[in-house]
Amino acid sequence: MKPSVIAAALACALWAGKALAQDDAAKEAKRQQLINSLHYQTGDVALAEADAHLHLQPGFRSLDQADARKVLEDLWGNPPDEDVLGLLVPDNAGLDSDHSWAVVLTFSNKDGHVSDEDAAKIDYTQMLKDMQAGIHDANDERKKAGYGTLELIGWAEPPHYDVLTKKLYWAKELAFSDANGHTLNYDIRVLGRDGYLSLEAVSDMADQALVKEGMQQVLPMAEFDSGHRYADFNPKTDKLAAYGLAALVAGGIAAKTGLLAKIGLMLLAAKKLVVVAFVAIAGFVKKIFGGKGRGGGTVS
Q1: Total of domains in the chain
Q2: N or C: which end of the chain has fewer CB within 10 A?
Q3: Are residues 47 and 29 in the same domain?
Q4: 277 lies in a domain?
Q5: 79 and 10 in one domain?
Q6: Which pLDDT tens digit goes with each residue over 122-136?
Q7: Same domain for 2 and 74?
């Protein structure tokens, strides 16, 4: 190869490298600008749309709906989600760190009051087996649709329900073929008069201990306001959901976009994960709970 050709090739390579570096620097500057623009809240924070409050303890801050969507959509690349009420952010994991995680807050009242009458009857061991089989069997259809496969590995935290506080929590370990490593999906549901609050965190399984400790701190922070609590339900005037606690758990795989597109995951893969999660669970829940009526019932 002629020296002139080699020199031209080296010049092109250097130019391309410089352009990429400048592009990366611009993206990083834009990311930091977004992070610096966020307005954190502490103490007691109202969730007016849900008639609820957050009683934030040291170690956590919250972002309102607008800032939460900035993080989820602009910083982490999730699709737009108007249902997001806010975001809880731990102090020990920055939004731009490799171990970043946060808690997505949403409220559901379209189905009405969720009864806990089935709480003592749910066989979570059998539920897990049924869900694993249903999700695995749907992989062929996901592949035909051009998506990766999904497997439910097991409970990362078995379901627990506190009958006094009306709070349910659990965690699942998931394996997406489009992602490196396994994914942790940690859920909390707070039952109220008209529906329930969802608090959901998604992270790498490598951060399970960090997220578990954090979510246990989050558990007592969310409460419905007086008049909107579980005990305020009036069967004569209020709508009753056609399912119980079992359906909340069975339908809890990445029920919201959550943090599936967090830093460290490919955006394209993350978008697939959201779609795959819906495809995986929607038919299964309908099949198991569609005709159960009041209270859900035990999965068998």
Answers
A1: 2
A2: N
A3: no
A4: yes
A5: no
A6: 999 999 999 899 889
A7: no
Residue with tokens 């920055």: 94
Q: In sequence order, what are the residues at sequence separation of 6 or more whose Cβ sits closer than 8 angstroms to the Cβ of residue 2?
A: none
DSSP the chain: --HHHHHHHHHHHHHHHHHHHHHHHHHHHHHHHHHHT---B-SEEEEGGGTEEEEPPTTEEEE-HHHHHIIIIIIS-PPP-TT--EEEEETTS-TTSTT---EEEEEE-SS-B---TTGGG--HHHHHHHHHHHHHHTHHHHHHTT---EEEEEEEEEEEEETTTTEEEEEEEEEETTSSS-EEEEEEEEEBSSSEEEEEEEEEGGGHHHHHHHHHHHGGGEEEPTTSBGGG--TTTS-B-S--HHHHHHT-TT-S-TTTT-TTS-HHHHHHHHHHHHHHHHHHHHHHHTTT-TT-----
Which pLDDT tens digit goes with each residue over 39-67?
A: 999 999 999 999 999 999 999 999 999 99
Residues 123 and 234 in one domain: yes
The pLDDT of residue 94: 73
Domain residues for 206? 40-289
- The tokens of 129 are what? 């087996």
Do you know the residue count of the chain? 300
At 32 the pLDDT is: 86
Same domain, 32 and 48: no
Judgement on whether residues 126 and 50 belong to the same structural domain of the protein: yes
Domain annotation covers residue 95: yes
Determine the pLDDT at residue 289.
42
